[in-house]
Fold:
Amino acid sequence: MTLAFFTESKIGFTKIFDKSLAPSFCESGTAKFVDLTVDANAGTFYGATNRGEVMVFEASNRADAIECKVRAVLKVGDDPQMKLASTQGLLFAATNDAALHLYKTDDWANAQAAVYRPPLLEGQTETQVEVLLSAKFNFLLSRLPSTSDGTARLLVIESFFNPRK
Structure:
């Protein structure tokens, strides 16, 4: 079993049962990683950077090393604290301006985002939105700002996207 982790400049891999670290890494160049998520397809990783980009990596095992290639770099915005999550066939990038960017993961050469902005409450600004994401199976859960009486709100999105085979 291999576990992916990230530092400011690298995505690394460790074999849990062997207690060993893979000798190669996916590098961010001069940008710094702020979040990481793994695609449902084994070997694809997404790293959010402090430049508002998402780096799409494809990693494959080659003998005792892991080969890592950048498949795409998506410019999402200017948010240095973007959060990522993925479900089958979709990548979600949430920014602190309350926007949720959705990408299909089957064609990075023509990647374009659909952008969803949840409605703000009366008197609330975009900077008051806390971004928390959690994805499982075909569902994405995001916490929205509480109402004026303190009632918590959650946004649940169910994906019916099925990539063509």
About this structure: The chain has one domain: 2-158. The two ends are 27 Å apart (CA to CA).
